[in-house]
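Re-run requested by the PI after the first attempt was lost when the workstation crashed. Everything re-entered from the original request form. Ligand of interest: guanosine-5'-diphosphate.
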Amino acid sequence: MALSIGIVGLPNVGKSTLFTALTRKTGVAANYPFATIEPNVGAVAVPDERLARLAELVRPGRIVPAVVEFVDIAGLVAGANEGEGLGNKFLANIRETDAIVEVVRYFTDADVVHVEGRVDPAGDVETIRTELILADLGTLEKALPRLEREAKRDKTLDVKIALGKRVQIWMDSGHRAARMEMTPEEAELLRDLHLLTMKPMLYVANVDEGAVGRDLAPIDGVEPIRICAKVEADLAELDPAEAREYMDELGLDEPGLDTLGREAYRLLGLQSFFTAGEMEVRAWTVRIGAKAPEAAGVIHSDFEKGFIKAETISFADYDALGSEAAAKTAGRLRIEGKEYVVQDGDVMHFRFNV
Ligand SMILES: Nc1nc2c(ncn2[C@@H]2O[C@H](COP(=O)(O)OP(=O)(O)O)[C@@H](O)[C@H]2O)c(=O)[nH]1
Ligand SMILES: [Mg+2]
């Protein structure tokens, strides 16, 4: 299953423009057979030079890049948590994604109406944050009484209830759940509640054409990624030479979409591992810190359930030695077990049993 990122924001901030640019990007997404999955879901290939190098060595039948799915979620408005503007449906769509990119309007075009009548990035961010937090508080309000009933029979739930109450108080004061200090074990305990504000979040500032180079104030402690969605949509339609010329004119080093892809990977704590065989050389996305069975599960849930071991070669070794056989002879093919923490660029072969 591909990693999915929901694009959220107020109406008319440029979400669909960005989505279209992402999924139209020539030469990359077009190679992927399922580029448009549903009208509002698009698969975007993650550019990776290592994949090309592996393909050069293995000469497989096909090469498949890692993909990130972007979901264009209809605009959230104030009151969404109470069902305003089809709010519940949107919130349910967000719940299914692994991460959130929020598009914030910075561009000033008078022809494009702002739902609240003024361009106010900080105010917009606040509106969306409030909606997401209110939705999560609603989730807890339902979950806690249920957990308390179950806790009469199962005392182990007491820890989870106490944690839920702590998060409730924290969010009540206007903070996203992800900002609360907690141990990885506590975060794991919260996982089945699918809180929206526990998801990793990235901000895209949709700026005016002339403002792509300017510094912006941090949002929620991080600098937003500056993009002009309109420019990106145009760039996605041009051939590489024309695109380069247009970017030079605007003073852009690289398309904003590339920056977005890279920053999304970094901020969301993601990395790639590879599978390399005659049929296919392929890149996959997994969390930094994930153990081998979780990586196996990215390929197929059976691989995770029946995980036995992972034959692993680092990309550097594969690159230097040139083949799996050579890596094996050189003693660079490792047999890793359930506790192995996957490293960026690992070339893996899973053994499993179902
Ligand atoms: N001037 C300008 N207009 C934009 C930009 N991005 C989007 N728009 C326009 O804003 C309007 C709403 O964009 P859309 O992507 O549909 O917004 P959504 O409601 O957030 O999906 C459209 O008319 C776009 O052409 C931008 O970067 N600059
Ligand atoms: Mg839209």
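Saved to the shared folder this time. Residues 289-352 form a domain with the Ubiquitin-like (UB roll) fold (CATH 3.10.20.30).
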